[in-house]
Specification:
Blueprint (H helix, E strand, L loop, with lengths): L2 H5 L1 E3 L15 H13 L3 H11 L4 E7 L2 E8 L2 E9 L4 H12 L2 H8 L7 H7 L11 E5 L9 H16 L3 H5 L4 H20 L1 H4 L17 H5 L23 H4 L3 H20 L12 H11 L3 H11 L2 H23 L6 H14 L8 E4 L2 E4 L4 E5 L5 E6 L5 E3 L7 H10 L1
Antiparallel strand pairs: 1-2, 2-3, 3-4, 4-5, 6-7, 7-8, 8-9, 9-10
Amino acid sequence: MSANDRQARGFPAFAARRGGRVRGQSWWGKAWADALEDTSLDEDALKRGRSYARTGQLGPITVSPGELSTTGYEDGSPFRTVLTLHELDDAAWESLWEKTAALPEVADGLLAGELPPDLMEAAEDARVSLLPGYGDLEADCDCDSFEYVCTHAAALSYQASWLLDEDPFLLLLLRGRSEQEAQEELRSVVLMAAIAGGLGGGGTQPEPQPAPVPLPAGIPAADLFGRTPAALPALPPLPAPPVVANASSAQIGTDPLERLIHGAALRGRELLAYTHGLTPEPPAPLDLWRDCVRIAATRPDSQVLARLREASGNSQKLERAAEAWRLGGSTGLDVLEEAWTPSRQDTARARHALTAGWEQDELSELDVHDNHWTLTGRGLQLRYGRDGRWYPYRQTEDGRWWPAAAPHEDPADALADLLDG
């Protein structure tokens, strides 16, 4: 039995899935799918693979160094599909672990049994490719297909992202190192770096320390602490009893100071986000309407809501606006009330994300108007905010659009929340 056979790991076949996204959902699963789609020259093969991956017709999967394989039956005939990925040599692994050891948080996470996304930074510094690049992932299948990449191989490529959702260390195994081997090699590099640092960076002599400066004589301790302490001043008189208010805590409601502190904290967070460049514009000033919406969203007390409806002068919209603020903050309210036209690049990027995550026949026709993307006949809608996030909306029986879930940066994720809801 070869070393690769000893390291091989088997996984049961994936059951059929009804709809849903085919791309992996974890960070590493998405990264694998992105690399697969970015380096593929055949979009039709990927589309067929996405559909076939959901059918449950692929058999158990075996993962070993440099190889991903499965078997199955189609039209009564068996087939075996193999994906091969270039293994890294010892020099590449050593370089990767040296760069990883220089990133303590990444090294600690990997040694603790996690695969931090920042490992990609170490891989880039070491000029090592963990994810498949152009021509790096080769497919071979003994089915009767004449395509360069058959449907079975494309489906297996997507199911690999599902495996990475469960165990991202399989990516290292495909490149030639099991989880235990990777941890042992990294631990050795970290230990050697610590030893080298303890020796002063390779045997250099420590710099001589200056002689201690003598302290002044000062006052002898016996003279300083042997004095009789001075008498303490008399205590001040007690304050007068507090005035008892003629109102119960139930009448007053929630502590207003707590509400003010909470609102100030949220406002400060928005200002800090703009100061650090995380948002393109500073938060909009809170006029009477926006302030009423903010309070209604953060403190939905029945007595408070009644007063807010009266103060805002727009009780019909307050509940829906508060829900938009509750799910998306100040920007969520803007998305509810304002329509605008995104750039062509943003629109094209969104279409690609939805095409990669869903099959065309699984979704209704998308009616795109300004920043509103509506699934025709489904009562579902995505709204693109100026913050670059996608806000799910659902149409009610009275024909109004209501915020349905928290926003996502990926339109496919926002759409999945709507379809799963």
